[in-house]
Amino acid sequence: MLRLSRSISFSCLSSKPFYCSLRARLPDRLVSLLLSVLILFAPACSAQGGSDNPFVEPIQTDTGVVVVDYVEFARIPDAGNGLAPRLMHMLATPDGSSLMVSTMQGKLYRLSNDGKSITEFLNIAADRWAIPVQSAGSERGLQSFAFHPQFNEPGSPGYGRFYTYLDTADTDPEPDFESGGSRRSHDTVLLEWTASDPDAAVYEGDAPRELFRAAQPFPNHNGGQVAFNPVAAAGDEDYGLLYIGLADGGSGGDPLGSAQNLGSAFGKILRIDPLGSDSVNQRYGIPPSNPFTNDGDPQTLGEIYAYGVRNPQRFNWDPQTGRMLLADIGQNQVEEISPVTAGANLGWNLWEGSFRYVDRQVSLDSPRSAPGLTWPVAEYDHRDPLWRQRQVAVTGVAVFRGDAIPQLRDKIVFGDNPNGELFYVAADTPANGGQQQIRRILLNDNGTARPFWELVKASSRAQGRDVSEDTDLRFGLGRNGELFLLNKRDGLVRKLLPAGTADH
């Protein structure tokens, strides 16, 4: 995938809407050739299509910095032909007995809690399952997975059940959700697997059951995360309900108008009961407490929990307050961390963060002026001097409570995916968006505080791999609040530790 040099001043060519639109329609080699020609012959153009910078004050690089230790917790096997595994997601099993980490190529690995034992638990792309995992490019593949909270409870309805959310090249079956566009790039499917022995090192069970299938119009921003609310306990209304991030379908600017359309599943946070059967396809249930289940409009989808999202890549819950927070990747200027509540409208594509989205750019006129919308608690822009490249995309998110890492207690932790920077904001301070409250998290590397991307580049170089400017940062979460850092470049899982505890 092409990455433009930082020295090139044609920011309109390297902006996210232009670049993603090309990638959604053309092969990577043709995109590279076309952009090279444009760079040679195009006249200079104003940054980000002429829109003004909404955040004049840059992210503080030296004030309020938190430095934590880390260890190289585990190394996941290569994907073949010397290619690094593209690490994507990591969770503890509900009983806390082990960890599971996934790769975009379609593999799940079971790890011991000390990281010393690594076993390939499941290869979804194996011939026996006949599931052609589509992992080409940078945004497709095995997106996420989740364990039913009863996964380790014999005799319970959720015993042994876990869920994978992935992109597939198989577009023969009828989709449950369509975008309204004429193209069908690939499908995103939600699968339920049932392990006969949840504690086995290797998956033992039958082929998966398909819960739903979404026909994707473009190759970019497709699925995202699936998760059960870890704060919900047995007997709670939210217990056993599966949250699903389904992006707006791709290209740029939500051209199909999906995110604000309550008759479309795209651009939404969905919530379903995976063990129910009252959906249209009778493969899952629609919780009666969902905000649009009984709104009186037969076109409205009862699966919708919240709407107006663009690329809801990652979300999580505050273990103390129960508040759900979303890292929603922006279009051409604003990345956001936003709260998600039942029925919330997060604004896309009428708003990008706190700002109106007009003619494919943000407008600074009357920010946060629409009634009834949900606004970000923190957001940042694409032109901050901290960035090493033009591509910017938020990821995360974790809320630290307790004593796992005292330096991060009562902080919301997130990061920027391609740039490999880690950040925090205070979890309990009233927030009105913007980036003025954002502070950096650096890692102690033998006495030197470094950003995460430096560690990944150094490791890739030491392993003899191609060194990319992209870090492709993702988070992994442990049973007791541990935070792990994943990436698609060097195959290493790194675990964050309190300052002064690591022995490098």
Structural class: mainly beta
Query: What is the CATH architecture assignment of the largest domain?
Result: 6 Propeller
CATH topology of the largest domain: Neuraminidase
Please give the radius of gyration in angstroms. 21 Å
**Kindly state the mean pLDDT as a whole number?**
90
Weakly predicted, low-confidence segments: 1-15, 31-51
The proportion of residues forming helix, as a percent range, comes to under 10%
Strand content: 25-35%
For the record, the count of structural domains works out to 2
In CATH, what is the homologous superfamily of the largest domain?
A: TolB, C-terminal domain
Shape: globular
Distance between the termini: 34 Å
Query: Strand count, sense and closure of the main sheet?
Result: 9 strands, mixed
CATH top level of the largest domain is Mainly Beta
Total number of beta strands: 28
The number of helical runs is 4
Please give a structural write-up:
There is one protein chain. With 504 residues, the chain is mostly beta strands. The protein folds into two domains: 7-46, no CATH class; 57-497, TolB, C-terminal domain (Neuraminidase, 6 Propeller), CATH 2.120.10. 8% of the residues lie in helices and 31% in strands. The protein contains four helices and 28 strands. It has helices spanning 11-14, 16-25, 28-41, 452-462; strands spanning 66-75, 87-92, 99-103, 107-111, 118-123, 142-147, 161-168, 186-194, 209-216, 226-228, 242-246, 268-272, 304-307, 312-317, 324-328, 334-340, 351-352, 355-358, 361-363, 378-381, 394-400, 411-416, 421-426, 439-445, 448-450, 474-477, 483-486, 492-497. Strands 1, 21, 22, 23, 24, 25, 26, 27 and 28 form a nine-stranded mixed sheet that branches. Strands 2-3-4-5 form a four-stranded antiparallel sheet, with no helix packed on it. Strands 6-7-8-9 form a four-stranded antiparallel sheet, with no helix packed on it. Strand 2 (87-92) and strand 3 (99-103) form a beta hairpin. It is globular and about 55 Å long. The protein starts with 10 loop residues before the first helix and ends in a 7-residue tail after the last strand.
